[in-house]
Amino acid sequence: MKALRKALDVLEFLMDRGSAGVTEISKELNLNKNNVFRILATLEKHRLVEKEEETEKYRLSVGSLILGYGFINKYPLTKLSAPVLKTLRFKLGETVNLAMLDEKQQFIIYVATEETVRPVKVKTRLGRRYPINSPVSSAKAIKKALKGEMGFVFDFELDREKGISGGACVIRDYKGRPIGAVEVVAPLYRLSLERVREEVKPLLEDAALDISLKLGYWD
User: Fold this and answer.
1) 137: CB partners within 8 A, 6+ apart
2) In the chain, which segments carry CATH 3.30.450.40?
């Protein structure tokens, strides 16, 4: 089990860093270099990591992607949310994201998206992970719900430096626990805070309720 835990630590480290060399992995995870070599060799054999020829650093490979999509396609939250996300994107004309809370309630992970067809769009968040204390709207809304705020908690997002804004509403499971959020994000010039409050918020609340009901939620 210790060997498996170390291998998972290496995978998680590469997921966060993008790519890293043996020395860096060894130093950051406090692992012997020989152990890191063996772990990487095993992961590479199973197509979970690959070595960049130019830099000799390791990164996640197609096998990790296949595992990720296998989870996403069969997980109830993502399966049941798919038609709701499509409808919401059609109504708003902007990118709609689905974020999931991790089991330790420390991070949110973006597991699904419906991108706008407009030529200018916000960089995709699909597959990205953010700390629960992050200023992104999904993390803010979920954090408030975890602290005890009731109902379908909503929160805003505004980043003038990046020129983006948006909002998110918490999704709850059959026990009423916050497990994720449905989110809309767009360039600030298309999604003013006034539009977020007046148009986006009620649509997100309806979408979050719809998904929650599909998951067995009942107030």
Assistant:
1) 155, 156, 157, 166, 167, 168, 181, 183, 185
2) 75-214
Q: What's the mean pLDDT when you consider all of the chain? A: 88
Contact 139, 98 (CB under 8 A): no
Record: fold of 75-214: Beta-Lactamase (3.30.450)
Other beta carbons within 10 angstroms of residue 80's beta carbon come to 17
Closest CA relative to residue 219, chosen from 97, 208, 88: 208
State if pTM tops 0.85: no
Reported as a single tens digit per residue, the pLDDT across 13-41 is: 877 777 888 888 888 888 888 888 888 88
For residue 126, which amino acid is it? L
- CATH entry, 2-66, from 1.10.246.130, 3.40.190.10, 3.40.50.2300, 1.10.10.10: 1.10.10.10
User: Each residue of 32-75: pLDDT tens digit?
Assistant: 888 888 888 888 887 887 888 778 888 877 666 555 555 555 56
For the chain, residues classed under CATH 1.10.10.10 are 2-66
What is the total residue count of the chain? 219
Give kind and range of the element (H or E) at residue 130. strand 129-131
